[in-house]
Write a structure and sequence with these properties.
The protein is of the alpha+beta class. The protein contains 21 helices and 17 strands. It has a 5-stranded mixed β-sheet, with no helix packed on it. A hairpin with a 5-residue loop joins strand 12 and strand 13.
Length: 662
């Protein structure tokens, strides 16, 4: 017994005993500070290297990391080759501002410090000139608003609406500032891989994970759309009465996740934000959507059913995406983290796209690596688009969700699918993208025609608008697959314009549903006689959706047709039929709902109950944008023009760019 007790205590005694330094001693290098931040005006700063060990520290080299911006320079003399114990040396770094507003890099100090052996004996000092926290505020302010909502006392739950409004209004104001400050024509050749408003530092060093956010022209358009629709969605949620604190907390968490997806430049961070969206959307549809009901065919429908369907479809796509991310990570080449330390692999989306070549990556599961990974990403994003045959979750989710959530779904979430393809599939796996281009175009045309035919068959206004979304997103796929400047720019315009137009349509459907609790096309008639403002707005939104010249829906479709016709003549001709079908089901709905004799059944709830002030305030910004971009789309084309050009150049078809930006 004593021997056993002694055996147990011996390691503890040994650990507590004084540790003797081995003969000869060891050096220990430390640096202060571990990061230097420079103002936009430039300047010079110092970092101190100190030997805190008890043996000389050999310093073989002090250098800038390979991916440091050229605006940084080491201006001091090299430190001594050997630094005695207790001694220190100073390294001076200078930043000279150039055309771009930001610069990033790192100083690498190569020494014989044994404690740094696992890091290839490199000590890093992060360099950042004029880093921006604007995007981080836009991402996390809604999240802070969600916590504030949850902390409200139960008896003051009504204040949740106003907290949510403030938490969504501030990002909208910041989005306006972002739009005004964004430097047009700034691309990959200008540095930072074409990103602006960058914030970049190491997050989880042991797994090479970084907090890396920034925007180029492609993503900044989606950020503005997200901020706008997020704010309007709060107004559309004003009639929510059930569990106000829970609803608005989930809503703001969803808004935070959406913002993060469009800002993230690190794969791990991108995936975290992608998954953050999944949970709140599930609860928003399942709890605050339509109650369960049994249909005539015996099937049970309602919010819970639609929420589970949405969750399972999206989770399948997320799993495929995660596997593809892991595959790319382990095939990536060695690089340097933001703090200057070497890393064997990287999650950096921009480095994966522009500093890696996966064409020689071999096979995966017996097939070409790039094609397998491309398909995994594509399916994950296609579910979100949604693309036929992965579309069946969308009509159910739209029909059963509250109005504001339908607005978010159509206005923002669907764009994440096409955005993911542009940000990930195209630049990271260009060979596979060219290989799959015809297939993407075919699926785009199927989406256009299938969605339009399904919309024509619907007798529920909300389901009709949902299928019209499937149809309109097909134009994005067709334009992207053409690999032309006009086609890609048309796809981007279609993404933005569809977000504003379809959000307006879902809000208008919500207006009539709030009053009558029905959405049946055949249940109405003659609404123009008793609700003239509402009918005028609905007709306006339908005209914009069908692509009437002078409204924003027109320019995106025309650019897609111009860009895709040289590459896919037959498919472009077929896609043009979608315009005719879209006009058919929109005009049919207008005739049945707004024209003809008024249905006296709704006299008590509709007469004298036209669009109210809150609803007009929510719709007005969308109306203004639709008209403004219909007559003058140049600001949006200038915004994402260089990002589109860089994306096409990454695919290897830069010579095919058609100049459309002034």
């Amino acid at each position: 017994m004593k021997r056993a007790l002694f055996a147990l205590l011996l390691p503890l005694v040994a650990a507590a005993a004084p540790q003797h330094t081995p003969s000869g001693g060891q050096p220990r290098a430390t640096v202060e500070p571990c990061a230097l931040t420079f103002p936009a005006s430039g300047g010079e700063q110092s970092v101190t290297i100190r030997n805190d060990g008890n043996a000389p520290l050999a310093i073989s080299e002090v250098r800038l990391s390979g991916d440091s911006d050229a605006a940084f320079a080491i201006t001091s003399e090299p430190p001594p080759a050997a630094l005695a114990p207790g001694k220190s040396a100073t390294v001076k770094v200078k930043y000279v501002p150039g055309r771009k507003a930001q610069a990033f890099g790192a100083v690498q100090i190569v020494s014989n410090d044994p404690g740094a052996a696992s890091r290839e004996r490199v000590i890093g000092v992060r360099l950042a000139a004029n880093p921006s926290s604007l995007l981080s505020w836009m991402i996390f302010l809604p999240l802070m608003g969600a916590f504030a909502v949850l902390l409200l006392p139960r008896e003051k739950a009504a204040l949740a609406k106003w907290v949510a409004l403030a938490a969504a209004a501030v990002p909208m104001a910041l989005a306006v500032a972002l739009f005004g400050s964004f430097q047009r024509g700034f691309g990959i050749a200008d540095g930072n891989y074409g990103l602006q408003f960058v914030q970049h530092f190491v997050w989880i060093e042991s797994f090479n994970i970084e907090y890396y956010v920034g925007v180029d022209g492609v993503s900044v358009a989606m950020i503005i759309l997200t901020a706008l629709i997020g704010l309007i969605g709060v107004g559309a949620s004003w009639n929510i009465e059930k569990s106000l604190r829970g609803y608005f907390a989930m809503y703001l968490l969803l808004l935070s996740g959406m913002m993060g997806v469009f800002c993230a430049a690190d794969f791990f961070l991108f995936y975290v934000f992608w998954e953050v969206m999944l949970l709140p959307m599930y609860f928003l549809i399942g709890i605050w959507g339509a109650p369960p009901r049994k249909e005539a065919d015996g099937r049970v429908r309602g919010g819970p059913y639609a929420a589970i369907k949405f969750f399972l479809y999206t989770l399948l796509g997320s799993v495929l995406m995660l596997l593809a991310i892991i595959a790319l990570y382990y095939k990536s080449a060695g690089t340097t983290l933001a703090n200057g330390l070497p890393a064997q692999h990287t999650f950096d989306i921009l480095k994966l796209a522009h500093a890696n070549d996966f064409s020689a990556a071999g096979t995966l599961l017996g097939f070409d690596f790039t094609k397998v990974v491309w398909i995994a990403f594509f399916v994950g994003f296609a579910i979100k688009v949604p693309m036929f045959p992965f579309h069946t979750w969308l009509p159910d989710a739209h029909v059963e969700a509250p109005t504001a959530i339908s607005v978010i779904l159509a206005g923002v979430l669907l764009k994440m699918g096409t955005y993911g393809m542009l940000r990930i599939n195209f630049p990271i796996l260009p060979e596979a993208t060219r290989w799959a281009a015809t297939g993407v175009a075919v699926f785009g045309v199927i989406n256009i025609l299938y969605g339009a035919f399904c919309a024509m068959a619907q007798k529920d206004l909300k389901r009709m608008v949902a299928y019209s979304s499937i149809s309109h997103m097909g134009y994005c796929l067709l334009g992207m697959a053409a690999f032309t400047g006009s086609g890609m720019s048309g796809a981007m315009m279609q993404m933005f314009n569809h977000g504003t137009i379809t959000s307006m349509l879902f809000m208008l459907v919500g207006v009539i549903y709030d009053r009558t609790h029905t959405r049946g096309v055949d249940d109405f008639g003659g609404l123009a006689k008793v609700m003239p403002i509402y009918s005028a707005l609905f007709g306006f939104a339908f005209m914009a959706s069908l692509g009437l010249p002078g409204l924003s829906g027109f320019i995106g479709e025309v650019l897609v047709f111009l860009g895709s016709f040289p590459a896919f003549r037959v498919m472009t001709a077929l896609a043009a039929l979608g315009v005719v079908l879209t006009a058919a089901y929109h005009l049919w709905a207008i005739q049945r709902v707004h024209l003809g004799p008024f249905n006296e059944k709704w006299k008590d709830v509709l007469v004298g109950n036209d669009v109210n002030t809150r609803e007009l305030l929510c719709l007005a910004p969308l109306v203004i944008i639709v008209i403004a971009l219909g007559f003058y789309p140049a600001p949006m084309l200038e915004l994402f023009g260089q990002g589109v050009a860089d994306t096409l150049a990454a695919v290897g078809v830069g010579s095919a760019i058609i100049a459309i930006v002034p």
